[in-house]
Amino acid sequence: IQEGNVGLMKAVKRFDPEHGVRLVSFAVHWIRAEIHEYILRNWRIVKVATTKAQRKLFFNLRSAKQRLGWFTHEEVETVARELGVTPGDVLEMESRLSGNDLTYDPTPDDDDADGPVAPAAYLSNPADDPLAQLEAEDWEARTGHRLGAALEGLDARARDILRRRWLDEDHKPTLHELAAEYGVSAERIRQIEAGALKKLKTALAA
């Protein structure tokens, strides 16, 4: 009802009496369109109809399947010809309408031996791929080695500034605090930090 009211308001906003059409005749199309759009959005968790052809099939096949059940080859050809779509579109929409939403990870109460298998039971986890694990471990090892080598290439002051500014979880000193400690300006500390970070990025990108 609320969606129909939205359609009515849109119709009133767009209605032009100079076209010689009654408001009720004009508004019925907008009301029906808003209700249809609401049904499409909420029929399934995943939208079953996105294209114009699928939208036509959605409403026509629902009513036809209630009368006929599963379509025969001849019925598929007839529906496709009447709606101006391909037989493949008809079969795909028929399959979508026949399916049901499944919970990805069922609760303990859903342990039904005769029920459908939940996706969590058969979808693979990419993280369990031995090749992916080996690649990740190799990448981490190489990255750690390059990072360590790059840090060793810095002077003691630059290493200390980076460690305390980026790795110290207890207290991250400000540029002014480090400047007072090293007897230089805060801008000089910023330059040293920026230069050290640039060297690290270059080493990691190599």
Can you give the helix content as a percent range?
55-70%
Radius of gyration: 33 Å
Global geometry = elongated
Q: Tell me the span between the first and last alpha carbons.
A: 63 Å
Would you identify the regions where 5 or more consecutive residues have pLDDT less than 50? none
Q: Order of helices and strands, N to C?
A: HHHHHHHHH
Overall average residue pLDDT: 77
Q: List the total number of helices.
A: 9
Described by strand count, sense and barrel closure, the largest sheet is:
none
Class derived from helix and strand content: mainly alpha
State which percent range the strand residues make up.
under 5%
Number of strands: 0
What topology does this entry show?
Blueprint: H1 2-14, H2 23-42, H3 52-68, H4 73-83, H5 87-98, H6 130-152, H7 156-167, H8 175-182, H9 186-205
Entry summary:
It is built from nine helices and no strands.
Account of the protein in words:
This protein is mostly helical. Helices cover about 65% and strands about 0% of the residues. It has helices at about 1-15, 25-40, 50-70, 75-85, 85-100, 130-150, 155-165, 175-180, 185-205. α1 packs across α2 (about 25-40), α3 crosses α5 and α7 (about 155-165) crosses α9 (about 185-205). The radius of gyration is 33 Å and the shape is elongated.
Features:
206 residues; mainly alpha; 0% strand
